[in-house]
Design brief:
The structure holds 4 protein chains of 4 kinds. By secondary structure, chain A is α/β, with parallel strands linked by helices. In chain A, helix 4 runs parallel beside helix 6 and helix 6 packs parallel to helix 7. In chain C, helix 4 runs antiparallel to helix 5, helix 7 crosses helix 11 and helix 11 packs across helix 12. Chain C starts with a helix and ends in a 12-residue tail after the last helix. Chain C has 13 helices and no strands. The longest helix of chain D has 18 residues. Chain D is globular, with a radius of gyration of 20 Å. Chain D is built from 10 helices and 11 strands. In chain D, the strands form 2 sheets. A 6-stranded mixed beta sheet of chain D has the order 7-8-9-3-10-11, sandwiched between helices. The chains are: A alpha/beta, B mainly alpha, C mainly alpha, D alpha/beta. Chains B and C meet through helix 1, helix 2, helix 8, helix 12 and helix 13 of B and helix 5, helix 6, helix 7, helix 11 and helix 12 of C.
Chain lengths: 265, 347, 304, 291
């Protein structure tokens, strides 16, 4: 069971470029995330949702405002080697997999790397045990650890990417469009795995996507972004049943099919 | 403001040219001086002169190698801004004059060779797209795979053997004309012969150009052809072509569109290709007894003419940079997406 | 196999795997070339740098390729020419590829960083940009002119021309790999930046420069012959192809074709041999690698 | 030829199979597809990646690359006429008049260096001789019809000067201006945001309804099929699983694969579920075995 944590964003803003051509990717934004959170972020491409999640893990830096995790700003966390590793162990980020594995390293080697650096485990047997444990939990075949990334399907690779992040037992997991590139039939499997894992381990989750149904399934709270701005936020049920902002309404309508569909069961 | 935005792409590019030449000249200045080996000593040794401090100092002064490297650099820069690279040790004439009197005839040869190769490329590209005959397409591909493998002077030697020695169809490789002195107006032999109305010489020169241009065409077409075939294959498979076919566009237009879109892949390599063309032209000039920059280079090497070599390098490269600039501008004019800033605005 | 894969495979026709025999056959031309070079003293019947018979003898049983204007045996000279060309080409190809990779990796890793290393990286990149614009043979002429003609001079001149391609190729590849998301993943996994540069960036950036190596080999032969042809190559009696061709041209005019044509054929064949092997190598390499080393996992042959 | 031609038939194919030549062997990609559509009818071809749906569409539009594919069929009619859909010898295939196709990305579909007006001219000026002004007027009319203001101005622009939405509309106008009997749309909305994709789909449906054009939409998204298209053809590994009215996709007589596929689509109101149905689990549940 992970301990509690608190992630606070205050007035975070991100601009690309300078002067007259500057583009604001994220408008000033306040947000609080804890180990209880299962937060979904939805928006079309260019809405700033990915930038937001990348700023939280320090892959990009806010133009202004501050991101504070457990009382220290992300910038501070990343300033020294020791605290950087500590921060990485607690907050993990999974991106849409296209090339997130080194083509020359087996999947096993890739998944072992965070154990070695973030958990300081060097004992081969222990690494092996942990790899087997995470494989079991994510319903992966441990034999596939021997394979190279291109030798498994896209859905499998995405699950290994999850394994690489979850093997260090982080307290907060950020998922950036992890199912968008997958076939519908595989999406369900991956979503179930994430949801199950997060609930069993009581971790915080931030799930970024542009496909609404995946987000409404996996999260309890929802943030709707458009052009770098949060247009509406609240519990998923409220937003689905009674969206307030016209953009949210348009979005919900686009997916709502109650009239045309007769579902079994 | 609006005019500036519309024309920025070529103005900026042209304004950068002098800077490029200046930077390259400076790099060349250091490169030449940092190489191991001392031209002064080599030169004295080759003339069997004793290496005394006096003779070394005298030759250093002649070559512009006296004083510290920084004072040399200042003198070099000063001279360059006045278009002065010193005087040739052989003829005593200014280096710029030595080079510029020979450059046009080399350029003429290059342009003819390049033009012939370009036409051949277009024709073969057309055959490649128009006909699906396997043997034809395969042989065009095989020919294109000879790119950068066969040196032009080797082809020229074979051409000489066949067309002059065996068949006797073409005249001996002994200069541009059989007798007389070429008129000099612009420095481009063909042009000058036409301007002065010297039709006999023009005819002779044209006949004597057949073999070298043929050799250059045979040697350089594969280089352009690989690019063009690659471009054609890519463009034919492109969604654009499929969309045109599916929406029922006129067949001629589809071909035209494919050719035009693939052409930029050829024109792009023209710039860098120019360098190897100059190299090839030097060997061709040597073989066919044409005067040109190759002849100047070889003469300078034989007499260790340091100022000429230095000026020769810088002027030839400046010329290459100009050629690349022209190619870039043509390309940007053909395809506006290549203009800087356009792609960013499009997204 | 999915439809998309079938289509791609069918369209590129690269999936066809040649057998071991074909794979070895692809190497034959270059092996022959190297063999001739290595065993030149055993193959050549005469001393290549001395007059051995009357001048201008036509090809015969005793002089297969005839003799040249001063009575040197053309066959012996041509065979020794192979030795010289191959020696140059191997040295230049190795120096240019290894050096080019080192410099390219350095530029690619350092150019975007601040501080003196970044400055040096950008400077090297700019210098390389300008040297690329210099025609190979012009650079050769100038360097030989300043330093005098010798093995060392020509090696420096040709390497300086040909090292630019591996530098550029490696630099671009390093920049591409640095943008790959597996480096972000490495950062998230806590790998130190230097380690991930060495473990992930460098090994994944070597491909293009390695594939360019045969091209350097061939180009070196061409440049060496071209410089020799215009008379700024290796000094006189050395049996170098370019020089042999140019000195044979005057005899060619008189119908004595052999002193010029045989070395020209050898230039042609050697360059084509290298080009042939270079083109066949990407296809046959997996087969050979598969045969001879089961230990190293190879990316290409395991593509399914 | 055995089936009688209905007067309002737009397209009909029977026993349509496609295979690819790989290393001299034929690898089947799509087998024995039979369907027919009447004018204005809308068909969705649904399948996962690798199911052969794009291959099928490309073959019907006559766009398969020469030399790599092999097409066989018992019968193929477009607008009541027999057509030759076998892969030709030409390097650039010849258009199957009567079938237009639009693609996912308008930017790569339009000729990047030609003006929009020119691109219309290449389509509209084929066949009979017409004056430039006449053609220009018709092009402007089409651009106006897809809802772009000031059509005359757009004619002089090149694709990169248009916004993404405008490019998409121009592409649709170009595909429709030859008044095809069938419009094939390959993943028409998967590159678009939800709101935009709705507008684009309704534009396509409106235009095709007006001209009586049949629509074949290739998609991985069952949602799209259920929202916009009358009939659905489900492909799995090159084999037709079902061909039926879209409303009846989850009816008990449908194949297990189809029903499972419909069930696994994540829904907006899944927030109360603890887990989503997955394809494998659903098919196991129906006792039909895995795929």
């Amino acid at each position: 069971m992970a301990e509690s944590f608190e992630l606070v964003l205050s007035g975070v803003r991100k601009d690309y470029g300078r002067g007259s051509t500057a583009l604001t990717a994220v408008q000033p934004l306040d947000l609080r995330v804890t180990e209880e959170s299962e937060l979904g972020i939805i928006g079309e491409s260019g809405s700033g949702k990915s930038t937001l999640s990348r700023m939280i893990v320090g892959l990009e830096h806010p133009t202004s405002g501050e991101i504070v995790f457990d009382g220290r700003s992300v910038k501070e966390w990343l300033s020294t080697r020791r605290s950087r590793l500590e921060f990485r162990q607690q907050v993990q980020y999974v991106a849409q997999d296209t090339t997130s594995f080194d083509p020359r390293k087996t999947l096993g080697e890739a998944v072992a790397v965070p154990l070695r650096f973030l958990r300081g485990i060097t004992d081969r047997d222990e690494i092996r045990d942990r790899l087997d444990a995470i494989a079991e939990e994510l319903a992966l075949d441990p034999a596939m650890y021997e394979r190279l990334p291109h030798q498994v399907s896209g859905g499998q690779r995405q699950r290994f990417a999850l394994a690489r992040s979850l093997v260090v037992e982080p307290r907060l997991l950020l998922c950036d469009e992890v199912v968008s590139a997958l076939d519908v039939s595989v999406q369900g499997t991956v979503l179930n795995l994430i949801k199950g894992f997060v609930q069993r381990h009581r971790m915080g989750l931030m799930f970024v996507a542009h496909g609404l149904p995946a987000v409404t399934f996996i999260s309890r709270e929802l943030l709707v972004m458009k052009r770098g701005e949060v247009v509406e936020s609240g519990p998923v049920r409220d937003l689905v049943e009674s969206p307030q902002h016209p953009y949210t309404r348009e979005l919900m309508n686009a997916y709502d099919l109650d009239d045309g569909r007769k579902e079994l069961s | 403001m609006n005019w500036w935005r519309g024309n920025r792409w070529w103005l900026v590019r042209i304004l950068r040219l002098p800077l490029d030449v200046f930077v390259f000249a400076t790099i060349a200045f250091f490169l030449i001086r940092l190489l191991p080996g001392d031209p002064v000593v080599v030169s004295l040794a080759s003339r069997n002169e004793p290496v005394t401090p006096e003779s070394v100092a005298a030759l250093e002064a002649q070559m512009g190698l006296d004083g510290s490297i920084w004072s040399q650099l200042l003198r070099f820069w000063g001279g360059m801004f006045q278009g002065d690279f010193g005087a040739s040790l052989v003829s005593g004439a200014p280096v710029t004059q030595e080079v510029f009197s020979r450059l046009p005839s080399t350029v003429e040869l290059i342009l003819l060779g390049l033009g012939a190769a370009f036409v051949a490329t277009i024709v073969l590209g057309f055959l490649y797209t128009r006909f699906s005959n396997r043997a034809l397409r395969k042989s065009i591909q095989v020919y294109s795979s000879f790119a950068t493998t066969v040196p032009v002077f080797v082809i020229a030697v074979f051409a000489l053997l066949l067309l002059y020695v065996k068949l006797g169809w073409l005249p001996a490789p002994l200069g541009r004309v059989s007798s007389g002195v070429l008129p000099v107006v612009t420095g481009f032999p063909l042009l000058d012969e036409a301007i002065t109305g010297n039709w006999r010489m023009l005819g002779e020169t044209l006949v004597r150009y057949i073999m070298p241009v043929l050799a250059m065409m045979l040697a350089y077409t594969p280089n352009l052809l690989t690019q063009y075939l690659g471009g054609l294959d890519r463009e034919i498979a492109q969604t654009t072509t499929r969309f045109q076919v599916a929406s029922g566009a006129k067949r001629g237009w589809i071909f035209f569109s494919v050719f035009r879109r693939s052409l930029s892949s050829v024109v792009v390599v023209f710039g860098l290709f120019f360098g190897s063309l100059i190299g090839g032209a030097v060997t061709i000039e040597n073989l066919f007894g044409f005067g040109g920059i190759g002849q100047l280079g070889v003469r300078s090497v034989e007499s260790i003419d340091f100022p000429t070599l230095q000026g020769f390098l810088i002027i030839v490269v400046a010329f290459c940079l100009i050629a690349m600039l022209v190619v870039d501008l043509v390309n940007m004019w053909l395809d506006p997406r290549r203009r800087p800033g356009v792609a960013a605005e499009g997204n | 196999m999915t439809n998309t894969q079938v289509l791609r495979a069918a369209a590129s026709r690269k999936r066809r795997k040649p057998g071991l025999v074909r794979a070895v056959l692809a190497l034959v031309p270059v092996l022959v070339l190297v063999t001739v070079a290595v065993f030149a003293p055993a193959i050549a019947p005469f001393d290549p740098e001395r007059s051995v018979d009357a001048a201008r003898l036509a090809p015969s049983v005793s002089h297969w390729f005839g003799t040249d204007a001063v009575g040197m045996d053309v066959f012996s000279r041509t065979v020794y020419g192979t030795r010289i060309a191959v020696r140059f080409a191997i040295v230049v190809a190795l120096i240019a590829t290894i050096g080019g990779i080192l410099i390219g990796v350095f530029i690619g890793l350092s150019e975007s960083s601040r501080g003196p290393l970044g400055l040096l990286g950008r400077l090297l990149n700019q210098i390389s940009n300008y040297i690329i614009a210099v025609p190979d043979i012009i650079l050769g002429i100038v360097i030989v002119g300043i330093m005098g003609a010798s093995d060392l001079t020509l090696t420096i001149a040709i390497t300086l021309c040909l090292i630019q391609a591996p530098i550029k190729l490696t630099r671009v590849e390093v920049l591409r790999v640095r943008g790959e998301s597996y480096l972000e993943a490495a950062e998230m996994a806590g790998e130190p930046a230097l380690r991930s540069a060495l473990v992930h960036v460098v090994p994944n950036s070597l491909g293009p420069a390695m594939r360019n190596l045969p091209l350097i080999f061939g180009n070196c032969v061409i440049i060496l012959a071209s410089l020799g042809f215009i008379g700024v190559g290796l000094p006189m009696p050395t049996p170098e192809w370019g020089y042999m061709i140019s000195s044979g041209v005057s005899a060619l005019m008189l119908g004595q074709w052999w002193p010029a044509v045989f070395p020209a054929i050898f230039v042609l064949l050697s360059v084509l041999a290298v080009a042939f092997t270079a083109r066949a190598l990407p296809k046959t390499w997996p087969v050979l690698a598969d045969r001879f080393s089961k230990i190293i996992p190879n990316r290409r042959n395991s593509l399914a | 030829m055995s089936t009688a031609t209905r007067p309002d038939e737009a397209i009909a194919v029977r026993d349509f199979s496609i295979s690819y030549r790989v290393d001299g062997e034929l690898v089947p990609a799509v087998s024995d597809v039979t369907f027919s559509l009447s004018r204005s009818e809308r068909l969705a071809v649904v399948g996962e990646s690798g199911s052969g749906k794009t291959t099928l569409a490309t073959a019907i539009a006559g766009l398969l690359p020469h030399g790599v594919a092999h097409v066989e069929y018992a019968d193929a009619r477009i607008a009541g006429r027999d057509v030759d859909l076998r892969v030709g010898h030409r390097v650039i295939p010849i258009s199957q008049l009567g079938v237009s196709m639009i693609f996912q990305d308008a930017m790569t579909s339009l000729d990047p260096v030609a003006s929009i007006g020119h691109q219309f001219r290449t389509v509209l000026a084929s066949g009979e001789r017409r004056s430039r002004r006449d053609v220009r007027g018709e092009a402007a009319h089409w651009i106006d019809r897809v809802g772009i203001p000031r059509p005359e101005r757009v004619l002089g622009l090149r694709p990169y000067e248009l916004s993404g939405g405008m490019r998409q509309r121009v592409m649709i106008a170009l595909a429709m201006c030859s008044k095809p009997a069938v419009l094939i749309a390959d993943e028409p909305t998967s590159a678009l945001d939800v709101a935009v994709s709705q507008r684009i789909m309704s534009l396509i449906l409106e235009l095709t309804a007006e001209l009586g054009t049949a629509v074949i939409a290739i998609t991985h998204d069952i949602d799209l099929a259920q929202r916009y298209l009358d009939r659905t053809l489900v492909l799995h590994q090159g084999i037709v699983q079902d061909f039926c009215a879209t409303d009846g996709l989850s009816a008990p007589e449908r194949s297990a694969y189809t029903r499972a596929l419909v069930k696994c689509v994540p829904r907006l109101r899944d927030f109360d579920r603890t887990s989503l149905p997955t394809l494998a689990a659903t098919m196991r549940g129906t006792g039909m075995g895995g795929a």
